[in-house]
């Protein structure tokens, strides 16, 4: 499944600015926004544990 390019760029910029996975939902890309935030949070949690898997 391809991520909506408009949503992806906005979500990425927002995540970098916030330094967090707490993001606003992009209008018209609700599922994409939720999946992006969930995936980002999982990656941050994994990094905090110091594991690569």
Explain briefly what this protein structure is.
This protein has helices at 5-18, 30-49. The chain has 53 residues and is an all-alpha fold.
Write a concise keyword list for the protein shown above.
single chain; 53 residues; mainly alpha; 2 helices; elongated
SSE inventory with pairings:
Blueprint: H1 5-18, H2 30-49
If you had to describe this structure to a student in words, what would you say it looks like?
This protein is mostly helical. 64% of the residues lie in helices and 0% in strands. The relative contact order is 0.17.
The beta-strand count equals: 0
Query: SSE order, as H and E?
Result: HH
Q: What multimeric state do the chains show? A: single chain
Distance between the termini: 22 Å
> What would you call the structural class?
mainly alpha
Low-confidence stretches: none
Radius of gyration (Å): 11 Å
Percent of residues in helical segments? 55-70%
Q: Tally the helices.
A: 2
Q: Largest beta sheet, briefly?
A: none
Query: What is the average per-residue confidence, as pLDDT, rounded to a whole number?
Result: 88
Overall, the morphology is elongated
Task: Give the amount of beta strand, in percent.
Answer: under 5%
């Amino acid at each position: 499944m391809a991520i909506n390019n408009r949503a992806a760029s906005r979500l990425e910029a927002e995540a970098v600015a916030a330094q967090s996975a707490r993001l606003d939902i992009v209008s018209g890309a609700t599922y994409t926004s939720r999946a992006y935030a969930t995936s980002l949070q999982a990656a941050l949690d994994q990094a905090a544990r110091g594991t690569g898997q």
